[in-house]
Design goal:
Layout (H helix, E strand, L loop, with lengths): L2 H10 L1 E13 L4 E5 L3 E15 L2 E6 L2 E5 L4 E21 L6 H9 L5 E5 L4 H17 L2 H25 L4 E2 L2 H12 L6 H7 L4 H12 L3 H19 L4 H7 L5 H12 L3 H13 L19 E2 L6 E2 L16 H22 L12 H7 L12 E6 L2 E6 L5 E3 L3 H6 L6 E2 L16 E2 L8 H6 L4 E4 L2 H7 L5 E3 L7 H12 L2 H24 L7 E6 L3 E5 L8 H7 L6 H8 L7 E5 L10 E6 L10 H4 L2 H4 L3 E5 H5 L3 H23 L1
Parallel strand pairs: 13-14, 13-16, 14-15, 16-17, 18-21, 21-22
Antiparallel strand pairs: 1-6, 2-6, 3-4, 3-5, 3-6, 5-7, 7-8, 9-10, 11-12, 18-19, 19-20
Length: 658
């Protein structure tokens, strides 16, 4: 990359400082290796070391500056102690929309992913800047962070000025080589395309395109092949169980490994082990059914004019084959002929000598009345989705579902694969034994593939793009749909059309009964606030579809929030929204009853004066609702949330009366 383009893009970019670290010195002979999590400058201040960044070797002594991009592999081998250094991590991004000239230049190369190193002419000037950056960073004040950013630009200016003056070449890191190296070293860990792309500062689509162009395969196929090659080695070289092998190469269980192995190799892993070991014992067998080698390890010596073997050892080997058939074989053939003749006599004539028409299975089939044959039912059907028409099984048996777990469960369908379930979710116990595929917004495509699903249900375009090549995939844009619309579409996909209306009717009846109970308890007209957080401020829910019980409380039960929040709720925006409110003014947003989302590690406000003065908190009308229970908006979860909300409100009302 030309240095002028490099400088031009630095001027166009915005920068965020992520971390400034003073690393403990490395002792002589010590080795450190890691993947760089962000773009970084490394500034060494003492000692000598061999530093390799993505294969590029730098021999460093004393003061030295090294730059690398996100996802680069950094290996340090200290030659002389103490080898000490600073790491300056940053993130650079371009504003949107980017000027045409800048966009064209940036498409040619990303300057923040380049590798280069130099020994500075004025090391003490750089040293003072990075020391001061570290001191200010540790302080953590906003003014100090601003100072760090100003010093960073001075540091970069001085480094690039020397790069420009000395015309130091900058090497472009090969993203594909980095990806392959990372997978080779981390194949035992759960590696997803999204995680890999994030590490390398790329997008999944761009990384896949580059990877296929250079290797002829996709990153996911590459790591599958890598893992299965390791599995083959372990099957032949060890007596480990399939479960032990699966765990050692990154598969969660033997079932997943066996499915993937058979799909890719063509046979089950245990059979592969048996067959390959047998071939090693008898490597010269002409076929799998042969008993003796064509030529054993002690080869037979032949003389020039004789076909008979001249053996080195005094052993007498019988001939494997004889030209004369054995007596047993002759007897068997005679018996078969006799039985055949008897059979022909029985089918060809009757007791009175009249011949009977033969009737073979083929003729019986041909004479069968075709009207009695049941018509074949279609095995697939077409449904219309947000991504166009999709052909799916009429009655899918192996369903993978992300996020909308409770909706599928409500239709009495037990999925074979699901996204992670938050602790306390309404369906946590029911789905405890089902294979988890990762977070709903970034599942593992490899894990999905191993389950061999016949239908996949996804909640976003991103997850659709990740999984739609594996099996028929139905995209449900749940944020743009009502509960009824979502359930009807899912019912169509699952072959449960008759059950959708019943689910909704039962739920709405339950809601109406709940409203009457609240009115009888005298609390239906009371205001309710839903909150989450607590570190200096609180997120206050201001929409019906945020989760945390908002849909049950504000939409179905129809209860109101304080006026300052109700205006936003009544606006009816489809976007899930909340307001960030400081604890000092939180009382202005607090209703007669407060629901607070509760989760492990949340801030303890029991001793906070501002929190304790809120009337609902002070008078015992605070209700903590589990984050896991209140996170989901599927019909199964809504039903359980309704139970919790009703039980909690009625309990508080009864306590107030007593």
């Amino acid at each position: 990359m030309r240095i002028d383009d490099h400088l031009f893009l630095w001027n166009e970019a915005s920068v965020k400082i992520l971390d400034v670290r003073r690393i403990a010195p490395i002792s002589d002979g010590e080795i450190r290796s890691w993947i760089v999590p962000a773009c970084c400058f490394m500034y060494t201040v003492s000692g000598r070391a061999c530093v390799r960044m993505d294969g590029e070797l730098f021999e460093i002594s004393g003061f030295h500056v090294l730059h690398g991009g996100k996802g680069s592999r950094l290996d340090i081998y200290a030659v002389e102690e103490p080898f000490s250094y600073y790491l300056l991590y940053y993130k650079a991004y371009f504003p949107v929309p980017l000027r045409k000239e800048a966009a064209e230049t940036a498409n040619g190369c990303n300057p923040f992913q380049l590798q280069y190193g130099l020994t500075p002419h004025h090391p003490l000037s750089l040293m003072s800047k990075i020391r001061l950056m570290h001191q200010e960073w540790v302080t953590q004040g906003n003014l100090e962070r601003l100072h760090v950013k100003a010093l960073f630009y001075q540091f970069v200016h001085e480094v690039l000025a020397q790069v420009h003056a000395r015309n130091i070449p900058a090497a472009k890191a090969d993203v594909v080589d980095q990806a392959r190296r990372y997978m080779q070293e981390n194949y035992t860990e759960p590696v997803t395309l999204e995680k890999l792309a994030e590490l390398l500062g790329s997008s999944p689509r761009h990384l896949t395109r580059l990877f296929k162009r250079k290797t002829g395969t996709s990153p996911i196929d590459y790591i599958i092949r890598l893992r299965l090659n390791k599995a083959k080695e372990m099957l032949l070289a060890t007596d480990l169980t399939l479960q032990e092998i699966a765990e050692s190469i990154g598969y969660p269980d033997s079932y997943s490994l066996a499915k993937m192995f058979k799909k890719q190799v063509g046979i089950a892993p245990i059979r592969y082990r048996t067959e390959q070991r047998n071939r090693r014992i008898c490597p010269d067998l002409p076929s799998d059914t042969a008993v003796f080698d064509i030529a054993g390890k002690d080869r037979l010596n032949y003389i020039e004019y004789d076909n008979h073997s001249q053996y080195k050892k005094e052993l007498n080997f019988p001939m494997l084959y004889s030209r004369r058939p054995s007596a047993a074989i002759t007897l068997l053939l005679c018996l078969m002929i006799l039985l055949s003749a008897c059979s022909t006599g029985k089918t060809g004539g009757s007791a009175n000598g009249n011949s009977l028409p033969s009737s073979s299975p083929a003729s019986v089939t041909a004479n069968t009345d075709s009207s009695q044959t049941a018509p074949n039912k279609p095995s697939t059907k077409m449904i219309s989705t947000a991504k166009g028409d999709v052909e799916i099984p009429v009655n899918p048996k192996r369903v993978v579902v992300l996020y909308l777990l409770g909706d599928v469960l409500a239709f009495d369908v037990m999925p074979v694969g699901i996204s992670d379930v938050y602790k306390g979710a309404a369906f946590e116990k029911e789905l405890s034994g089902v294979r988890s595929l990762g977070e709903w917004f970034k599942p593992s495509p490899e894990a999905v593939l191993a389950l061999e699903p016949d239908l996949i249900i996804v909640p976003s375009e991103e997850t659709y793009g990740m999984l739609n090549k594996i099996a028929p995939t139905v995209y449900i844009p749940y944020e743009q749909m009502t509960t009824a619309e979502r359930l009807n579409k899912l019912a169509e996909a699952l072959g449960k059309e008759k059950e959708s209306a019943k689910l909704l009717d039962n739920f709405h009846k339950k809601v109406e009964i709940s409203k009457q109970k609240l009115k009888q308890a005298g609390i239906y007209d009371k205001t309710v606030t839903i909150m989450e957080g607590g570190k200096g401020s609180m997120a206050v829910i201001s929409s019906r579809n945020y989760g945390r019980g908002s849909q049950v409380i504000y939409e179905y039960l129809g209860m109101k929030a304080p006026a300052v929040l109700q205006r936003d709720i009544d606006a009816g925006s489809k976007a899930a929204s909340s307001k960030n409110v400081s604890l000092e003014v939180l009382h202005q947003y607090s209703g007669d009853y407060v629901f607070r989302s509760a989760y492990e590690g949340m801030v303890d406000l029991s001793q906070n004066p501002a929190w304790k003065q809120i009337p609902a908190v002070k008078e015992g009308r605070l209700i903590e609702i589990s984050f896991g229970l209140s996170y989901y908006n599927d019909i199964y979860s809504l039903d359980k949330q309704l139970d919790f909300v009703m039980d909690s409100l009625l309990a508080k009302a009864e306590k107030r009366i007593n």
